[in-house]
Q: What sequence folds into this?
């Protein structure tokens, strides 16, 4: 392991707030690590606990739900 | 599609009547094509012009191209321009000075030269010898010194070889031109002719080309290699120069006219003018021009030891400096005027003096003294400046008897030149002026002989190089027209700018000294013709260029044109005048903000950087502001520890400014700023708000105020009278008097001025033009009972143009104005509505997915960081992908069309666009899908810009990898997408209004007037509501006649049914389809309707305080009026405010009581000026121009005494009246008032709204007022779609606001009622009834009552979705233990596929 550990993060973002926030971070050119993979949902209420488990099963190191 | 937005547009006039107006508008160009601009921002990055950002209140800069702020509508860019800059106007050749100066600033020398060489082929030459009239015109002169424009031009030519600039030439035409003379005019003409495709040959009499540039200017000023290089610029275009070929015996004009179609004479003015004194023909006297010619051509000439030169122009100076270089011991210039009048360049005179040349000012030569035919001396006479003549010019006159002699061995007269016409003598028809110049047409420079043109010094007499260049260009244009046979003059008149408009010079523009030009040391100049001025280096050049004020805003450097890959920029757009046919007009032009400069002596706004306006402070707090939300002060970037807000700056002030009104919003925003500051800053930030009254009268505002106190915001009741700056720290010392009379001095790090609103100057002008009445403060005048109607029928007003107000109220008024305008246009409603037609949709159900992937470069926004070709190639390898391509801009019009074509050609049935955000662009691409005949839900976006390249710009490889992952996730999801249909629900257009007060009746009447069958239900037995108790509005309008009118109209309207003694019992359904059960006098009746307006009203509360109900002298609200009649001798009346408001029980302000009590107090004073009237209050909240009656009351002697919440007045009964005791905070003692009457302003509460709120599922706030969908942006919409709110059911408010809100509710309701159907988003839940066990968890989870259990015969209960109510959140789906509920378009399998695809298969 020579490379720095960079956790792969799966993010569920609410269409109305967090996803728009992530867009705004882009408009503002805020820089953050390129290890986040985003799935847009119509509400964070859509995020079934099964999806979180599915995320870990698929190989993500962390799951981030924001809404 | 049905809103046409005209930006940069001003209304010139509006003629006609309601329903049939014609508006003349003037639209200024934005220079950016909205249909092409993709808002990628590439133009902004290359724009060199930095201007103060208005959006950031001048605390940050912006570019000349850009948009005001990220969310601006339209989001496309815009260029700010004004008239051509003064430097350009001053330049005879019209060089775009600002443009090339900006390019030098950016270090883009090639581009600078390209700009220069648009108008001038000799940049390095003019960069040295131009007399730079532009610098005299430079507006920087008013700040310090002009920009060194000439030296910057030279720097550009020093840094980049002008010969390497590509000159675009048209294809060569047949006709050719002969040019006589290779000076600046000839070279310039040849250059511009070549660009026009016209070949020319230059005939030069001398052995070398360049004319006066070659022979008239010594090498120390213009090195010959520079001239050679730039002559090559011309000859490289195919121009031939024949030297040693003078006009004369061997070459006549006739010869030339045989071989060429046209001849341009540009032989210059090379003949020196004699002085006209005795002895000037003797040996040792040589003309200056001849002297210089010899030096320049041969490098040698005869030079004396003691040389005198006569003259004061550049030639005299050049001769003197050449003479000293050639070995003269003593050089003297004799000039008859003073240094002030000397026409030579100032820097040249200085350099000559530095080199040891003497100048005898005020001396004129009288006679050359010769011995043996050789000059030995010059007799001169001293001169003095005479009186000014009629032209204001002073001429030198000889001083009698002042003759003197100077000893010389060479005399060089340099008093002027004129053309040598000997070679032109044979041309018949050529007209010669008395100054030996050739006469031509002023514009075309055509002589009287057809085909022969003349220019340069030959035409003007001795003039500037740049003037000659300019004429050469004009002549080229004339010759082209002559060849084309078109008029040589038409359309060429110079454009005059009598009152040019420029970027204002800021009063605080920082001083910057002009960069000094490095020079060859004096000791190295002797005997050498090395160039003296060495030219700027890059660093000083950039610094010097940054001094340019950018007078024209945009510098037209053209960098944006090159950067814009979408080709959206067009610098040639022009102003457009349009006439628009319209039916109604709504004015919403806003206000200006009070400028505290006017009160600078008190507030130090201009003097201290740490005194800010509230708007500037707002920007500092903003994450997108100049400090990115970091709270620091502008003076020294220090984090403040103490901040003071000063309220009422420019409001409630008739002493220092004429703004007697309250600006209504400042208290709230100051509190907000203080609270946010405390949140932003480290603990311990001290925020103090200095105020006279805190006016938090809006819905839930008082609670916010109270909460701010808990958070530690301090409120100081005082108007600060002096601020001084402490120079050492930049802190500010505030001096103020407390309530108790104590004088306090307190130091703050920062002071924020809570500036008020002021009628905007342009709005005042427009209103006057449109003949619309304004009030005393220049806001648009309206009546309280018709709050959005202006004095001109058919023209309505909304927002702060009518008077200061907050956002919710402005939005409410906007809807109200839309209602009023809509009412005027009922008959033509819908006639101009445009609807888009799409091709029939293909059914792709069951087909194998064929995914097409379109990867956008977004100019360089994506492609500049991620490897777009690699992503595109990668996409091809993904399952189901049958096509992929990259686009420059996927969203551009032409790409859209291309995508639609590709969908058809490649038979795609799923589309993925990898570009920006679906939040902004999904609708656009979904429309493309529809245009290609595909269902729009078969589309997905991979957000590889906002959420990838923009946020990982430093990690290009990783951004590429992430983009690939995002595309893979999107393709995985897209492959599983299903086509969905919008659900369409029919709308029934009857409407129900609940509540028969002013708001309800206004709403009902407006709805019925627009043709909607309306039912108005009122729970009491009569209409009118609480307004029945009010006599007059605060503006004095008769409320009873207004209400009476309303009732009469409501009752007789044939579209309106009134049900009194009625109440809502129950309601079902959703937007467009409600079924409401109304109990009408004990009978239930079901009404079907499409929308509902809730106006259940409010009422004054009862109280047990202050002997109310126990003593007949104590009344409430309007009961006072009856008591005044009952006690006609009452001479002392006391009002107590906030009875039951703003306390723990009702923590809100009832908003209308202060105005109402003052109004009553004034009436008492009017009837009985001797009466003692007291108003006991906690803050006086006469917002807006109600402040004027507060002022009037004080003037008329009404006494206002403030009390604190915990020190309430105490009322006791006396033998013949009442005694009210109160602690007066100013006197700091208890005061006892003997009162005959006491009136209580009791709190206003909501009427009972329980049945309505539960029937329509309307949430209420803690105080039982019905909540709006969004407190600021949707102030009349309820949370339940199709339900609208107005009047006091929403919050206590004056009649005017109730009327406006009722109109607003109507306007919002008509957006539903005018439709045949409403479309329901298909992203809703669906139940698999086979799996559903009827547990009801979904029903319990849903906040919108959109999923309910329904009995199914034989199967118990099954869940069922009401799609029209479903918001698509998916909470039910997650709650379902059976996984029986799925969300359309966000299905389990689609999400799972995306999750799995996010991790690359290794």
A:
């Amino acid at each position: 392991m020579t490379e720095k550990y960079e956790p792969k993060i799966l993010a569920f973002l609410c269409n109305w707030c967090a996803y728009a926030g992530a867009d705004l971070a882009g408009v503002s050119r805020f820089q953050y690590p390129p290890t986040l993979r985003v799935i847009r949902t119509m509400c964070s209420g859509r995020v079934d606990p099964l999806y979180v488990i599915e995320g870990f099963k698929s190989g993500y190191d962390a799951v981030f739900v924001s809404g | 599609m049905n809103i046409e937005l005209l930006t940069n547009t001003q209304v010139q006039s509006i003629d006609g009547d309601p329903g049939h107006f014609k508006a003349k508008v003037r639209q200024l160009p934005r220079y950016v094509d909205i249909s092409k601009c993709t808002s990628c921002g590439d133009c902004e990055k290359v724009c060199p012009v930095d201007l103060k950002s208005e959006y950031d209140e001048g605390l940050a800069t912006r570019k000349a191209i850009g948009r005001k702020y990220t969310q601006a509508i339209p989001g496309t860019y815009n260029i700010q321009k004004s008239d051509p800059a003064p430097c350009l106007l001053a330049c005879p050749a019209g060089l775009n000075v600002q443009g090339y100066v900006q390019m030098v600033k950016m270090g883009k020398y090639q581009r600078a030269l390209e700009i220069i060489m648009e108008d001038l082929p000799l940049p390095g030459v003019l960069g040295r010898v131009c007399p730079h009239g532009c610098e005299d015109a430079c507006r920087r002169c008013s700040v310090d010194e002009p920009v060194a424009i000439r030296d910057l031009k030279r720097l550009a030519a020093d840094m980049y070889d002008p010969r390497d600039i590509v000159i675009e030439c048209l294809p060569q035409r047949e006709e050719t031109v002969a040019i006589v003379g290779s000076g600046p005019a000839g070279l310039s003409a040849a250059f511009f002719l070549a660009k026009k495709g016209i070949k020319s040959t230059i005939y030069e009499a001398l052995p070398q080309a360049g004319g006066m540039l070659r022979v008239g200017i010594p090498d120390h000023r213009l090195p010959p290699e520079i001239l050679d290089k730039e002559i090559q610029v011309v000859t490289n275009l195919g121009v031939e120069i024949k030297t040693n070929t003078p006009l004369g015996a061997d070459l006549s004009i006739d010869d030339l006219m045989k071989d060429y179609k046209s001849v341009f004479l540009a032989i210059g003015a090379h003949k020196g003018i004699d002085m006209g004194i005795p002895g000037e023909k003797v040996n040792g006297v040589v003309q200056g021009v001849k002297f210089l010619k010899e030096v320049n051509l041969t490098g040698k000439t005869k030079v004396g030891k003691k040389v005198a030169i006569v003259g004061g122009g550049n030639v005299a100076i050049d001769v003197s400096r050449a003479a000293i270089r050639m070995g003269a011991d003593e050089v003297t210039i004799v000039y008859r005027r003073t240094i002030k009048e000397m026409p030579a360049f100032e820097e040249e005179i200085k350099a000559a003096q530095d080199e040891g040349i003497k100048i005898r000012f005020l001396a004129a030569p009288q006679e050359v003294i010769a011995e043996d035919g050789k000059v030995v001396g010059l007799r001169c006479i001293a001169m003095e400046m005479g009186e000014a003549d009629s032209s204001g010019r002073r001429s030198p006159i000889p001083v009698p008897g002042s003759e003197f002699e100077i000893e010389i061995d060479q005399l060089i007269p340099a008093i002027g030149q004129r053309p040598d016409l000997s070679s032109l003598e044979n041309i018949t028809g050529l007209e010669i002026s008395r100054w030996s110049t050739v006469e031509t047409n002023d514009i075309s420079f055509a002589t009287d002989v057809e085909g022969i043109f003349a220019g340069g010094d030959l035409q003007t007499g001795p003039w500037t190089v740049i003037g000659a260049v300019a004429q050469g260009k004009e002549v080229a244009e004339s010759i082209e027209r002559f060849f084309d046979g078109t008029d040589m003059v038409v359309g060429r008149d110079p454009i005059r700018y009598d009152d040019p408009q420029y970027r204002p010079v800021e009063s605080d523009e920082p001083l910057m000294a002009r960069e000094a030009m490095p020079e060859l040391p004096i000791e190295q100049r002797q005997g050498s013709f090395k160039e003296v001025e060495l030219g700027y280096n890059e660093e000083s050049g950039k610094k010097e260029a940054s001094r340019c004020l950018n007078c024209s805003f945009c510098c037209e450097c053209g960098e944006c044109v090159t950067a814009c890959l979408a080709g959206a920029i067009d610098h040639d757009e022009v102003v457009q005048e349009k006439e628009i046919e319209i039916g109604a007009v709504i004015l919403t032009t806003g206000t200006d903000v009070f400028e505290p400069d006017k009160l600078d002596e008190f507030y130090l706004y201009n003097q201290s950087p740490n005194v800010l306006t509230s708007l500037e402070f707002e920007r500092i707090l903003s994450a997108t502001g100049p400090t990115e939300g970091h709270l620091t002060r502008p003076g020294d970037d220090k984090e403040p520890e103490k901040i003071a807000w000063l309220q009422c700056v420019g409001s409630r002030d008739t002493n220092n400014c004429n703004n007697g009104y309250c600006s209504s919003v400042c208290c709230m925003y100051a509190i907000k700023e203080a609270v946010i500051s405390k949140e932003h800053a480290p603990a311990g930030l001290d925020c103090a708000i200095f105020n006279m009254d805190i006016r938090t009268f809006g819905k839930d505002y008082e609670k916010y105020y109270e909460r701010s106190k808990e958070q530690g915001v301090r409120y100081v009741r005082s108007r600060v009278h002096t601020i001084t700056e402490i120079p050492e720290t930049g802190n500010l010392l505030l001096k103020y008097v407390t309530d108790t009379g104590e004088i306090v001095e307190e130091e703050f790090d920062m002071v924020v001025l809570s500036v008020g609103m002021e009628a905007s100057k342009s709005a005042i002008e427009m209103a006057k033009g449109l003949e619309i009445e304004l009030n005393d403060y220049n806001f648009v005048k309206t009546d309280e009972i018709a709050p959005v109607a202006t004095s001109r029928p058919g023209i309505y007003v909304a927002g702060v143009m009518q008077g200061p107000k907050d956002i919710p109220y402005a939005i409410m008024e906007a809807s109200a104005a839309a209602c009023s305008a809509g009412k005027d246009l009922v008959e033509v409603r819908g006639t101009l509505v445009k609807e888009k037609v799409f091709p029939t949709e293909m059914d792709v159900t069951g087909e194998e997915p064929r995914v097409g992937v379109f990867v956008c470069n977004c100019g360089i926004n994506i492609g500049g960081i991620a490897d777009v070709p690699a992503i595109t190639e990668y996409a091809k390898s993904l399952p189901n992908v049958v096509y992929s391509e990259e686009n420059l801009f996927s969203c551009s019009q032409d790409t859209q069309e291309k995508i639609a074509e590709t969908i058809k050609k490649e038979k795609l049935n799923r589309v993925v666009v990898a570009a920006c955000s679906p939040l902004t662009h999904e609708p656009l691409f979904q429309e493309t899908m529809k245009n290609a005949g595909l269902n729009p839900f078969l589309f997905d976006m991979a957000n590889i810009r906002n959420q990838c390249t923009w946020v990982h710009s430093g990690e290009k490889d990783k951004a590429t990898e992430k983009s690939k992952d995002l595309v893979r996730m999107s393709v995985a999801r897209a492959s599983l997408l299903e086509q969905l249909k919008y659900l369409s629900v029919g709308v029934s257009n009857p409407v129900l209004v609940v509540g028969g007060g002013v708001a309800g009746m206004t709403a009902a009447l407006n709805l019925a007037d627009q043709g909607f069958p309306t039912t108005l239900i009122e729970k009491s037995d009569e209409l009118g509501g609480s307004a029945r108790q009010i006599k007059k509005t605060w503006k004095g309008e008769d409320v009873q006649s207004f209400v009476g009118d309303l009732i009469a109209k409501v009752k007789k309207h044939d579209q309106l049914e009134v049900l009194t003694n009625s109440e809502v019992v129950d309601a079902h359904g959703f937007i467009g389809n409600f079924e409401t059960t109304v109990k009408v006098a004990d009978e239930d009746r079901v009404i079907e309707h499409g929308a509902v307006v809730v106006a259940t009203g409010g009422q004054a509360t009862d109280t047990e305080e202050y002997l109310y109900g126990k003593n007949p002298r104590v009344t409430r609200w309007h009961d006072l009026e009856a008591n005044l009649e009952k006690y006609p001798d009452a001479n002392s009346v006391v009002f107590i405010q906030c009875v039951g408001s703003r306390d723990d029980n009702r923590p809100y302000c009832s908003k209308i009581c202060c105005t109402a009590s003052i109004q009553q107090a004034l009436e008492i004073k009017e009837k009985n000026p001797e009466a003692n009237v007291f108003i006991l209050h906690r803050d006086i909240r006469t917002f807006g121009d109600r402040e004027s009656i507060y002022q009037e009351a004080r003037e008329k002697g009404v006494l206002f005494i403030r009390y604190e919440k915990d020190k309430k007045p105490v009322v006791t009964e006396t033998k013949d009246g009442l005694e009210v005791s109160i602690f007066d905070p100013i006197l700091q003692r208890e005061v006892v008032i003997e009162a005959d009457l006491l009136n209580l302003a009791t709190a206003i509460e909501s009427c009972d709204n329980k049945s309505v709120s539960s029937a329509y599922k309307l949430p209420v706030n803690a105080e039982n007022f019905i909540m709006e969908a969004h407190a600021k942006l949707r102030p009349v919409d309820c949370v339940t779609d199709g339900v609208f709110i107005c009047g006091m059911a929403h919050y206590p408010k004056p009649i005017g606001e109730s009327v406006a809100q009722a109109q607003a509710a109507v306007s919002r309701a008509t957006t539903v009622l005018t439709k045949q159907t409403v479309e329901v988003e298909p992203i809703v839940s669906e139940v698999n009834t086979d799996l559903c066990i009827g547990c009801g968890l979904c029903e319990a989870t849903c906040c919108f009552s959109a999923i309910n259990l329904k009995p199914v015969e034989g199967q118990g209960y099954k869940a069922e979705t009401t799609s029209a109510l479903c918001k698509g959140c998916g909470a039910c789906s997650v709650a379902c233990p059976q996984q029986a509920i799925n969300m359309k378009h966000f299905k389990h399998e689609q999400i799972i596929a995306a999750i799995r695809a996010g991790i690359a298969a290794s």
Notes: The first strand of chain B starts at residue 9 and ends at 17. Chain B touches chain A through 44 residues (CB under 8 Å).
